[in-house]
Amino acid sequence: MADQQRYNLACLSCRLMYSPSEVIYRCRRCGDLLSVEYDADLMRPETAKKWRGRSLSVWRYAELLPISDRSRIVSLGEGGTSLNRCSRLGSELGLKEVYVKNEGENPTGSFKDRGMTVGVTRALELGIKTVACASTGNTSASLAAYAARAGLECVVLIPSGKVALGKLIQAMIYGARVIQVKGNFDDALKIVEELCLTQPIYLLNSINPYRLEGQKTIAFEIWDQLDGRVPDEVIVPVGNAGNISAIWKGFRELYSMGLIDKLPRMIGIQAEGAAPIANLIKMGLKEIEFVENPETIATAIRIGSPVNWKRAVGAIKDSNGFAETTSDEEILKAQRLLASYEGIFVEPAGAASIAGLIKLVKNGLVKKDDLIVCIATGHGLKDPDIVLRQFPKPVEVEADVNTLMKLLSS
Ligand code: AN7
Prior knowledge:
By secondary structure, the protein is an alpha/beta fold. It contains 15 helices and 13 strands. Helix 3 runs parallel beside helix 4 and helix 12 crosses helix 13. It is globular.
């Protein structure tokens, strides 16, 4: 038997409420996005007692996830990613306590799996047969996998020629219909949203409120992994701006439940060529100025019109945080630094949080003793080309130990 629904959907702007039984992405009155809001009786410390004894994963936090029938969860073992204390990186930067949460450890290699386990489970509950998304790569890889697991048809739209190879082949092998759109991610998202409003196809981009529910568990896990301590700063790469919003929601819920008594500052990092949110925050603009032709080697965050920009700006401002931009060069440098100092290999977009941290240190915006968590959002093997291009071919030797020793001593 399904539990009773213990949440509703609420418009972010006008607060109009909708029943979860509706397939709806935007408020019918004002057009803004929707958020999952739980019944007040769940927002108590007692709720967290049920979490103890369950393994670290997205579903450890089931009471605060919008699924009524837990017997039908579509899972591949998502979440439970490591939170690595990075002492070598920290001392290089003159910081005492830096952690990297390695979301590349998720089943398809990015944090998107946290959202998809929830979103695709909801799709099944709603009786959906076909799911779709637009994607810079990781969302499509993840949706394709979870759709396969659930036995759903899957359509993914990607910007022509601008998706890292590893992500493209994932969507293919999982059996999705992969369609390249002549345009960028923003163009692809626009048409897939239109498609899903007129066809019986369920949209699983981050305008879908259930996705963010899964992703907020990054905050819950950090809190668990730090034994109840709250970071001073959480640094997040920002593209479509769903993840930073989701993580902030997670921390706010812990706060509402009375489990923490302070909140972290949320720090969003964007690539210079795709930085509408960072520009807004840094220049104090009133209105967002979308970037028409976003460009960065971090193709995952090559997004000019982030749909969740309002939520993200809210998260940054309400948390007393800020936003920063990083150049492609800084991103690649950070990617190498994290790999060679800590053994953590992330894709360029995932390294944006590290590149951002380096910049914040330079600008004196974080303190030496701060407890800092960087979110490394995707696995390095997604995009091998970018690394290959930066290194010379490995030297070749005869299969002879003396030659080898000579080489090593040179
Ligand atoms: C590695 O896959 O948007 O700010 O379509 O893959 O929540 O969008 C990917 C985003 C950061 C940005 N890091 O997260 C997609 C897509 C990685 C990513 C982001 C993405 P959001």
